[in-house]
Design a protein that fits this description.
The structure holds two protein chains of two kinds. Chain A is an all-beta fold. Helix content of chain A is about 0%, strand content about 50%. Chain A is built from no helices and eleven strands. The relative contact order of chain A is 0.33. The chains are: A mainly beta, B mainly beta.
Chain lengths: ~110, ~110
């Protein structure tokens, strides 16, 4: 596809369960970013990958959150022992190079923890 | 630390009227400033950015913004609103000049009426 693809578009899970959210960046983009957007708020930075490695994970709220990008393309955001406060839209973005000023965002995954 | 404040969570204008969306920033270092737009059911899209150089920045769809250091502002304007401009607009700041680790405002929803 031409843009950043995120799956699933919606996810409902029970409190305490484990979830995985997937991001397919634009082909060839080396930089990948995860953001979280809670209701009525702007997106908040979570983690940034350059290639396969996490260049900055300072936005991850706690150790229940983890993200990987094993082959430098697709990334998975993993949330363990989900809590109701984790409910939000999780956004993924990518850019061709880390030095680029423009990132291309996906439509997001809406996570609801019940 | 950096932050942006968007005054007015909702703004309503008539079609053909001036659009003015306000953004003030706080930054201990020279900031890099962005405006993103989010149309319903779509990902965030970059409208324009200020990194260095000319303080009046022109973006897509007829929007422009002016960086005013003395006022710590980066307000977004468009001379004549169109119905298709109805969307949510986010101001963002970063200290890196790149798309990594953006700090977003809470957003302003623009409504355009006939």
């Amino acid at each position: 596809g031409a843009g950043v693809s995120q799956t699933p578009s919606n996810k409902v899970t029970e409190k305490g369960k484990y979830v995985e959210l997937r991001c397919d960046p634009i082909s060839g983009h080396t930089a990948l970013y995860w953001y979280r957007q809670s209701l009525g708020q702007g997106p908040e930075f979570l983690i940034y990958f350059q290639g396969t490695g996490a260049a900055d994970d300072s936005g991850l709220p706690n150790d229940r959150f983890f993200a990987v990008r094993p082959e430098g393309s697709v990334s998975t955001l993993k949330i363990q022992r989900t809590e109701r406060g984790d409910s939000a839209v999780y956004l993924c973005a990518s850019s061709l190079n880390p030095s680029d000023t423009e990132a291309f965002f996906g439509q997001g995954t809406r996570l609801t923890v019940v | 630390a950096q932050s942006v404040t968007q005054l007015g969570s909702h703004v309503s204008v008539s079609e053909g009227a001036l659009v003015l969306l306000r953004c003030n920033y706080s930054s201990s270092v020279p900031p890099y400033l962005f405006w993103y737009v989010q149309y319903p059911n779509q990902g965030l899209q970059l409208l324009l950015k200020y990194t260095t150089g000319a303080t009046l920045v022109k973006g897509i769809n007829g929007f422009e913004a002016e960086f005013k250091k003395s006022e710590t502002s980066f307000h977004l304007t468009k001379p004549s609103a169109h119905m298709s401009d109805a969307a949510e607009y986010f101001c963002a700041v970063t200290r890196t000049g790149t798309a990594s680790k953006l700090t977003f405002g809470t957003g302003t929803r623009l409504q355009v009426t006939l």
